[in-house]
UniProtKB/TrEMBL annotation:
Coiled-coil annotated residue ranges, if any: none
Family: Belongs to the APS1/VSP family.
Family annotation (InterPro entries): Acid_phosphat_B-like, Acid_phosphatase_pln, APS1/VSP, HAD-like_sf, HAD_sf
Any GO MF annotation of the entry: acid phosphatase activity
Signal peptide start-end: 1-21
Name of this protein: Acid phosphatase 1-like
Keyword field: Glycoprotein, Signal, Storage protein
Amino acid sequence: MANLVPFWLLLSALLAPFASGDWNILRPKKSHLDLGDSLKVYCESWRVNVELNNVKGFEVVPQECISHIKKYMTSSQYTADSERAIEEVKLYLSTCCNLEGDGTDAWIFDVDDTLLSNIPFYKKHGFGGEKLNETDIEEWMRSSKAPALEHTLKLFNLIRDKGIKVFLISSRGEDLRSPTVDNLIQVGFHGWSALTLRGLEDEGKEVQKYKIKARQRLVDEGYHIWGIVGDQWSSFEGLPTADRRFKLPNSMYYVA
């Protein structure tokens, strides 16, 4: 029993920094937060709750959090978070699917900030701090200059090479088909089965309902949707859906 005394003394010393009610996982070594730390905690909490789909319907990133979101979206942490999501997809693929091999196995990808990165656009428009201007974002899309997200490019190729048909469902308008196809091909995406864009009949329709309709069409054609990868919750919600859904990080996904 005598040997237990030093152990508990050591344990108490290790736990001392956690005793304060002000302790936060972002700053475990300090018991009190200054104003700058408090703002960082607030902005990180806001970002995480966007990812959890608790914060909805926002038009702009809170002004006090723009620099925080910019730092995250251009950081190694954003890359690591994205790559971890892709690793989970690969794990799922390695165990999940009894592929029919008859051409009915399907997988869905979103396009913007899933296959193509809009970070160069965000850099010029305040990283979500400006209300989205449709003319500006469409001009960017028409330029066909969006770089590939390399982690999803590798996943795209892996899924396609397994014999699963890849379908792209984007909320871009049909008038953007040519620059979208050009952009995808230029950065290495080849061999998808179909690219669905919003037509005139979809104008004014909520993104979620438009994507539900697109998925229903695939199901009606006899496809089994094994998975969906996207950066927006509107890519997943509603029925029919996929066996698994994988969300990539995007703290500015008010850009539908």
